[in-house]
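Chapter summary example.
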Amino acid sequence: MANQTPDLSAMSGLELLRAMMPMLNDVPNIGRTIGMEVGTLEDGKVEFHLTTKPDHANPLGSVHGGVCATLLDSVMGCAVHTTLDPGVGYSTLELKVNYIRTVPTDGVRLTGTGTVIHRGRSTATAEGTVHDDQGRLVAHATTTCLIHS
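The structure predicted for these 149 residues follows.
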């Protein structure tokens, strides 16, 4: 029997993420661009990692805030996605990030965790944190997502 492509439209959000994540390094995407790696994928909770590098630098030489914002947007949005039914999508409506400390660009392992707070019919909210490899809080955020078919 030939290898058949799974019907992605019939998969729940969690099933879709689990099926797609191993292939993400094969296609251009923001995760590949900044070096995100998949950690946990559970219903309502997602964890991604990245290791800082000189390409992540802002003009002052530390990690640009956009790297943490992108990591947070990704884990919170994907956490919402894990709760969706087949054929349902989402868009980020709002993202609020608080930066706690600067991060050097010399190989610090960052862990972003996103958790769903509320999932309704038309909107969802989630919270996220980024910790460094010493367990220190680097940034935290909240998001509101629009749910659409």
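To summarize the output: The longest strand covers residues 137-148.
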